[in-house]
Amino acid sequence: MIYISDNIKFIRHAIAEAAFASGRGAGEVQLVAAAKTQPYSFIRAVIEAGVDAVGENRVQEMTSKHAEGAYEGAPLHFIGHLQSNKVSRVVGLCDLIESVGSLPLLEQIGRHATAKNITQNVLIEVNIGSEPQKTGILPGQASEIISAASQIKGVNVLGLMSIPPINDENENNCYYFEKMFQLFVDMSAKKYDNVSMSFLSMGMSDSYSEAIRAGANIVRVGSAIFGERTL
Predict the structure, then answer these.
(1) Which residues, including other chains, have CB under 8 Å from residue 143's CB and lie 6 or more apart?
(2) What is the CATH number of the domain that holds 151?
């Protein structure tokens, strides 16, 4: 697993450079290892190498690995599309659900959390490119959704998450990252119960440096750590 450790060292260096460029320290940015399809041994390797959290996209895969103890020693984030019929399996299992893309889903999470007598930390997913095929609230809905979220028992909104439109131009990535950061700043200026705009999660293996320069403080990195997936 030496290459995983080396990859994380390289990414940490890039994170430090990008954070410095945005007027922050490297410790202000969390590195989440996106572990979709990765085996137990690889997850243990990234935790031992010091990632800040592990992120999973698939509920069944996550619950199976959790039962094996794969995530011990690191916070667990759910970063994939969460179907309503699987909410009960995720609430309370994850330290943070990053991909809450609708008010009904938020309400359902709140009901399950309340039934378990816990508070579930979440991020609101924003469809920053207004792409019809993607989940997430539209940027113009953010104030309304976050205001409603403040009244939902069992949830604690900690910030925003986004996956910008796929493109090959860094300039286009930067445009959407900057747009997300401005939305994050606007929502941070509003004061609601059970809402703290602490985290802005955006940027992946091919764009995390640009995202950090634009203001992200959580990045979700998979292939740059583990190599390209074969499944």
Answers:
(1) 186, 187, 190
(2) 3.20.20.10
